[in-house]
Write a structure and sequence with these properties.
By secondary structure, the chain is mainly β. The chain has no helices and 40 strands. Strands 5, 6, 7, 8, 9, 10, 13, 14 and 15 form a 9-stranded antiparallel sheet that branches. A hairpin with a 5-residue loop joins strand 30 and strand 31.
């Protein structure tokens, strides 16, 4: 039985800003930076026939990420006001095709001198059930367009939701008929970096297999404002949102993490492109958001958990959590042999425990010379993992070996399990000579209650069987 409770530490180091990037140290576990060097800008011109687009500034991460947007527009006799509805465009999907923005049906500028103006609001990507962005505004809803954002649990479906600064009171002659849409990131971007620490340099292979954040805000409303956008004050109560990344889903790198060196400040990012989390802006309160990590060190896996430090996640910011895995040889192993009694194990701490069980081997057939004519057969093997809390008890029943058979001996006895049951007895008769088979080895098991299964009809009462690993 092995205890696999692997602690990790946090280590923060303030980085020097690079050109076009702003890095700040928020707390010992966390680094932040802007999503990109500048906001995403797209210039739009509504002509009699089409949109045209000229990117003024492009993002560092992907120069062409805005390939689709949803546009809302209101036509007013003078200037836009909060009593106006989106009467000109309502959630109009506009896509880029061969460098040009296209949509249908086409819209036209009001005639010059008519006194009418157009006010535009745009988001990217367009709301959908897949990305968790839903539209609150209808064609009859006055005021700024609003949205409910519920980040999906699957990171690959989460959206880098962007909202353009309102372009109000535009005409065909304003800025030569070009409407400039400046997009700001409305979400928070989260990634993880990891290294391991080992004073004795024992650990050769360390992997982070899963990361889970729980206790997060999982839904909120955002709406346009005169100068951009604003999130509503979250409802009171404890948030229950859970978001996880794993190697199996492709969210985390499959590479082993490197050892930490004091003179090497290069982060080792383990979040893949699809494992980048886009979550809601929110205040992280003390002991509210739990961080649980599953680590594999060589052949042993274990979980550890902690709480995020207090912080405020702000829209448009990128937060990198640096994980330092303690990879010392701190795995404690408990071994149990046959004692003809049920033995008790008490978990010393909370953690995930790996349980390995071997059934006893059966007896062989001994010849006159003392050598085996038929060798003993080893018992079966089983293992599993179980989350235990400090003080929780398990009961270990180790079976004994079966008797060896002697030449010309008719019967042998099977091994014995102190929790009930034994191995089969051996007996055979061939050509007038007795060749007793070796006794069967008894099963070994670990159970959750100090009970004997002897005399129990487990088929009729399966609930009475408290064994959790049997071999």
């Amino acid at each position: 039985m092995k205890s696999c409770n692997k602690p990790f530490k946090s280590r923060g180091k303030k980085n020097e800003p690079e050109d076009g990037e702003h890095l700040t140290q928020c707390n010992p576990l966390l680094e932040t930076s802007a999503f990109a060097s500048q906001s995403d800008r797209v210039q739009e011109k509504i002509s009699l026939v089409d949109f045209t687009a000229i990117p003024e500034h492009e993002t560092i991460e992907d120069p062409d990420r805005i390939g689709e947007m949803s546009v809302f527009a209101a036509k007013t006799a003078d200037k836009w006001n909060e009593n106006v509805t989106p009467n000109f465009m309502l959630n109009q999907t506009v896509t880029k095709h061969e460098g040009q923005w296209t949509y249908s049906p086409l819209k036209y500028w009001p005639s010059p001198g008519s006194g009418y103006t157009l006010s535009f609001f745009a988001v990217s990507p367009a709301p959908s059930s897949t990305n968790g962005i839903s539209l609150i505004t209808s064609g009859y809803t006055p005021g700024f367009p609003a949205f409910t954002v519920t980040p999906p649990e699957n990171p690959s479906n989460q959206a880098d939701f962007r909202m353009a600064k309102p372009a109000k009171d535009q005409t065909a002659t304003t800025n030569e008929g070009k409407t400039s849409l400046l997009f700001d990131h409305a979400m928070v971007q989260i990634s993880f970096s990891a290294k391991y620490e080992s004073v004795n340099n024992i650990a050769s292979e360390v992997y982070v297999n899963k990361i889970e954040l729980s206790g997060l805000l999982d839904s909120n409303t955002v709406r346009f404002t005169d100068s951009g956008h604003a999130w509503e004050t979250p409802p009171t109560g404890n948030p229950t949102g859970i978001y996880s990344l794993s190697v199996g889903k492709g969210d985390l790198s499959t590479r082993k993490i490197p050892r930490y060196k004091a003179d090497d400040t290069t982060p080792n990012v383990i979040s893949t492109t699809q494992g980048m989390l886009y979550l809601l802006p929110q205040e992280i309160q003390v002991n509210k958001v739990k961080l649980k990590i599953t680590v594999r060190i060589n052949d042993v896996s274990g979980e550890t958990e902690t709480y995020l430090d207090a912080n405020e996640w702000k829209a448009g910011e990128h937060y990198t959590y640096n994980l330092l895995v303690d990879a010392e040889d701190k795995v404690t192993q408990w071994n149990f042999g046959y004692t003809n009694t049920i033995e008790e194990f008490v978990a010393p701490k909370d953690g995930t425990y790996q349980i390995e069980v071997c059934g006893a081997q059966g007896g062989g057939l001994l010849m006159d010379e003392g050598d085996y004519g038929v060798s003993p057969i080893l018992g079966s093997y089983a293992k599993g993992s179980l989350r235990l809390t400090s003080g929780q008890k398990l009961y270990v029943c180790v079976g004994s070996m079966g008797d060896d058979a002697l030449l010309y001996t008719a019967n042998t006895f099977g091994g014995y399990n102190p929790g009930g049951g034994c191995g089969g007895c051996g007996c055979d008769y061939v050509s007038g000579n007795y060749f007793g088979g070796g006794g069967g080895g008894a099963a070994s098991d670990v159970r959750t209650e100090y009970t004997s299964i002897a005399g129990m009809d487990l088929e009729e009462n399966p609930g009475s069987d408290t064994r959790i690993v049997v071999a």
